[in-house]
Structures are given as structure tokens and as C-alpha cells.
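Input set for joint prediction.
Command: fold jointly, output C-alpha cells.
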Amino acid sequence: MTTASAPGKIILFGEHAVVYGQPALAVPVNQVRADAEVTDIDRAGIWINAPDISLHEELSRLAPDHPLAAVIAPLLSPHFAGTKMGGPRGAGLQINISSTIPVASGLGSGAAVSVAIIRALATHLGHPLDDKQVSALAYEVEKLHHGTPSGIDNTVVTYGKPIFFSPPLLRGFSPVYGGDKGGASIQPLHVAEPFTIIIGNTGISAPTKESVSDVRKLWEQNPTKMNALFAAVGSLARTARQAIEGGYPERLGPLMNENHLLLQEMTVSSPELDRLVEVSLKAGALGAKLSGGGRGGNMIALSAKENAPTVAEALLEAGAKNVIVTHQIVI
Ligand code: MEV
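C-alpha cells >
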């Protein structure tokens, strides 16, 4: 049996604008994870068992564009990426998938499931892949989840470290990252002083694909206005990087508030997200914003470590479905 695991993620700054070439900051969330387990079995076929989504099916019975089929099938091709993957040692394979990352909530659930499966399956078939290959494969599947993903989710979930993700600048709209070929600059984000982020889940599931596609419509209608919003977000992301790497994480608070206002202007917030943001600030958070695709899913708040329980409690009282307190350590 071969197992692999991948963390969830949050975007600290830059969601949506990153799809249009602006830089963004993301960190892994290790408290929630996706796990994959691959075993040789005597029964023929590639059996996929994902109880969280009530799926128990043979691979060939899934539509080719089903995200799980799209992850698994290419790896089973005998000439996958010029490699010679070994076949299953039994008649077939069983792939068990489980995840504690809430789906459609901005925590990178789709990317983490892909990464865990790719790692476990490739290793099981005798050809472990490096992080760059894993991320590039997961990116292909992200296209099914997101339509036009920037590549930040698969990257942070694969590398499992804080990153400053900078796609090539756009000449008109296009997906900006193409896995290995896209030329995004992926730099480690050095955390000089620890800081605490509280993640509050609205409990509202909101597919990223929809918010990304709505932002695209707005961009098509008014590129000048939207480009200005994206550029403002990009500038916040660069300033935030300096604050984190310079050892002034408290400076992130006002930057998060500004980023949230810009996301509101992009129409990707929601009354529930705005309420949790407001509640966290009233409870003493230094700044707060939605995180990920928006319209539901999660918000994040920066807090002094000692005040984190108060902020977490306030979020739960205000209706957050669950709260995760993360401590970003020096790295
Ligand atoms: C989703 O986690 C982040 C978005 O910017 C989409 C993307 O970057 O692909 C909304």
C-alpha cells in the first residue's frame, strides 16, 4: 500500500487579481488535509473509493472530465510523460481518497486531493514524481475545477510552504500559468516573525469556477476599471511580502482590510463573509478579508496570538460553521 497526503491552503493576498498576472501570497493549512491510499487488489479494474463524496466506482465508468478520472487516467497510461510507470502488481488497484478540507470553501480542496492522488499513485507504480511534475499535473486538473486557474492553489498545496506567486504579466486575458510551461515565478515566502491567522468558514459552499467566471465577465465589460482593481491588489501583495519578510506582520492588518474592500468591488464578497470580517475586527483582529474564490467559503483574520481565542469565539458566535487558528512560524 502507498499513501500520500497534501494540506489545505489559504490565500493571504491577491486572489482573483492573480488570474490576471498580479502576484499573490498563499500559505498551507496543515490542520486540514487530503489523503490518498493506493493498494494492489486481486479484482480487475481501477476502483476509486471516495466515501466523502459517496463515490465507489471503477475508473472507466467515470466521465473522462470527472476531476478524479482526469487525475488518475493519465498516470496509468504506459507512456505517461515519457516515463515507464509500472503496472499494478495485482489484477487491479484500489484508490482510497479522503479529505478533511471543506469542498468549495477556498481552502484548496480540489488541488489537495489531486496532489495526494498523483503522489501516491505515481510512487505506487514505481515512478515517484518531483514537486514540479506533481504541481504541473495537478494544474491540468485545476482547469476542470476552476476554468482558468492561476496555478497558485496547486503550487502552494504541492510545495507545502508559504509562497509568493508571481505569474507572468498579462497581455489581455488568458490563463496565466501553464504548469511547467507557464513561467510563473514561485518564490518561498520567508516569515521573519511569527503571526496568527484565524480562518472562519461561512459554511456556504461557493465554487471558485463561478466567481472566477463572473470576474471575467466584469473584466470584459470594463477592463480599465478591473485592471486598476487588480493592480491595486498586486501592490498590496508586494507590500505584504515586505511586511512578512521584514518582520512586521502587524502591518498586514490594514493591508488585509484594503484587499477585502477591493474584493468587494470585484463583487466576490457576500453578506456572510462581510459579517464575519466585521465581527472579527470588533473582537480585536488587526485586519480581515475573504480568502479564495469568495461568495461564501472562508474568511481570514490576523490577530495577536493571545487574542486569537477571543476572535475565534466571536466568529463561532456570529455563525461561523468552524474556525481554524493557524500560527505561521518563522521559515
Ligand atoms: C482560488 O483559490 C484563487 C483564485 O484567485 C483563482 C485562481 O487563482 O486560480 C480565485
